[in-house]
Amino acid sequence: MKKEITISELARLMNVSVHQIRYFEEKGVLEPAYIDNNQYRMYNTDQMYDLSHILMLRKLGISVQDIKACMTSYDAEQYEQIFKQSLQELEAELLRLTKLQHFIRKVLHEHQHTRTHSQNYEIKNRAVTYLQPWVRLQPHEELHARRLAEQADSMPNLFEADVHYIWDESGTVIMAFETTEPSDCCLTNGNYLSYHIQIREEKDLEPIIQQFYDDAAAMTYHLTGPLVLIEKSYLSLFSKNKLHYELLSLIKP
């Protein structure tokens, strides 16, 4: 009985396809132990180890061409560096996926919430929210793409963030986004009157804001502090490009 095995037996043993093994042979990173009289390619334990190392390096993202160089000239320190580099890349990818997971959950939660609470007033108790100012608009100043592009470096993932528009008494609007760092620009803790809206154009905001204040007065809520408008642009996917906003204003105790 032969001690060596055929290519199909090697493929089954290593849980790969015959095509993969032939590909590695074509690229010169794996060779059979010998070819028998029937032209069968035969493999022994040495090729099993070689193939296992090739598959391991492929899992680490090493190209087949680089694997050939690795297996012919790399020492222990160089292999250690490969694993460290792969670990760094994997940790970065895990961080990216974790952030994406949190964002997807946020979008689904916000979509469900706005679907069930749209056009309804709510009282929300909020903790302190620190904000990073981004763009300051003077009264009657138009917000346009050029203005946003000039500030692009300071605002990552613009349309994935909740952009806060804060009106002060002079009519100046500060565009800001949430930050974990303590900041002078913040929403204080307390109860806020909240109202979710969907509109086609920004010009539709003014009468809605006025109605917001009128309704608050009718409900005997005394609002204090600046008016805050939170834009949730990612929700536009669910409603044929309508703009989604949440109106917030602190209720005076």
TrEMBL record:
Residues 4-73 form the HTH merR-type domain. PROSITE patterns: HTH_MERR_2 (PS50937). It comes from the Bacteria. The keyword Repressor applies. Keywords: DNA-binding, Repressor, Transcription, Transcription regulation. InterPro entries: DNA-bd_dom_put_sf, MerR-type_HTH_dom, MerR_fam. GO terms for molecular function: DNA binding; DNA-binding transcription factor activity. SMART domains: HTH_MERR (SM00422). Gene3D superfamilies: 1.10.1660.10. The keyword DNA-binding applies. This is DNA-binding transcriptional regulator, MerR family. It comes from Paenibacillus aquistagni.
